[in-house]
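Technical note accompanying the year-one report. For the benefit of new consortium partners, we illustrate the data format agreed upon in the data management plan: each record pairs a sequence with a structure-token string. No post-processing was applied to the example shown here.
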Amino acid sequence: MSNILSVNNLYAGYGKSQVIFDISFNVEKGTICAILGPNGSGKSTILKTIFGLTNIYDGLIKFKNINITRMKPHKIARLGIAYLPQVDSIYLNLTVKENLMMAGYILSKDDVEERIKYVQEIFPELKKFMDRKILTLSGGERQMVVMARALMRQPSLMMFDEPTAHLAPKISEQIFEKIKELNKNLNITIILVEQNVKKALEISDIAHLLVSGRINYSGTSKDLLSNKELGRLFLGL
């Protein structure tokens, strides 16, 4: 399997405040990669850095062998990377359909309609909500819209930042199932930052444990799940 993303010796943060130090890892095409660690360890900063939203002090990021280090977010998105932040990235006062249409603003009208049909096949739950405003939807329904918006551009890599935060366990399980479907059925590579460590390890292939801005462990998710010492010290397992 080939690497879709390579991060090498990355140092990044915000302004003069450095958050991550000497981060290196590869993500193989078609896999689910979990980035885990205690609060404040820099997990979200890694995703933001890949997507061009932080200050990079040193290091290299390559996506499909293209150097995207310090590239602008809109250019990174056009290459096929979707970043789904923890905070709502949807327009609350617009309908579901309007949100999807805005996600396809660079597409022709016909292409937008085709993509909307495409995401409705993947998220059939949304069909009955298309004319409802986002602010009337539940947290789980909103998360479905966020994922559907990202799929409008047919990305090859999706980065999720705490997708089940503040959701009930039953709804969280549905979100995890959708993430697995995107990976297995659509062959979308996934990078997952998630507070539900056990579940993230269960659905992912590879895991990186981040502690104080540095990678403390890299290996299979199965091995990390069975490592009682690391789980106890850093992950609350």
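Partners are asked to follow this layout when depositing records. The beta strands are 3-14, 17-28, 32-36, 55-63, 66-67, 81-84, 157-161, 189-193, 206-211, 214-220.
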